[in-house]
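Section 3.1 - Work completed
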Amino acid sequence: QVQLVESGGGLVQAGGSLRLSCAASGRTFSTYAMGWFRQAPGKEREFVAAISWSGVNTYYADSVKGRFTISRDNAKNTVYLQMNSLKPEDTAVYYCAASGKNYPGLRDNEYDYWGQGTQVTVSS
């Protein structure tokens, strides 16, 4: 069982930056692939970024590639999402998720555990 708690969301102007954190409980965090997803009002939840258990492999949605960076610190049981050059269309609730599979999936049904989400609002 893994419990996930996101933090770091908030209100930022377009062009600004935020760093989201996701703290995980449990001793087996380092064995889980981790992902970030987001859901804007009236839209379906969408993939943002994912990282393998080792941190070697990362994947990004085209919409955030070059602006967002996913990373993890297994010693701290934490995964991060550094978001730069934010745009109003990045406004959403951001969720982190953990997958017991041996690869970081790009679909939400590939993840086993979810945090409650943190709101990111980007003003124009």
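Second construct:
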Amino acid sequence: QVQLVESGGGLVQAGGSLRLSCAASGRAFSSYTMGWFRQAPGKEREFVTGISWSGGNTDYAASVKGRFTISRDNAKNTVYLQMNSLKPEDTAVYYCAASRGARIGTMPGHYDYWGQGTQVTVSS
């Protein structure tokens, strides 16, 4: 069992930056593939980025590639999402997720545990 708690969301102007954190409690955090998803009002939850257990492999949605960076610190049981050059269309609730699978899944169903989400609002 893994419990996930996101933090770092907020209101930022277009072009600004935010850093989200996801703190995990429970066993064997370092063995989990981690992902970030987001969900805007009226839209389905969508994959943003993911990182393998070692941090050696990452994957990004095309819409955020080059602007967002995922990283993890297994010693601190934490995964991060650095978001730069934010756009109004990045506005959403951002969720951290953990998967027992070895591959970076891009669908919500690939993940076993979820955080409660943190709101990111980008004003134009």
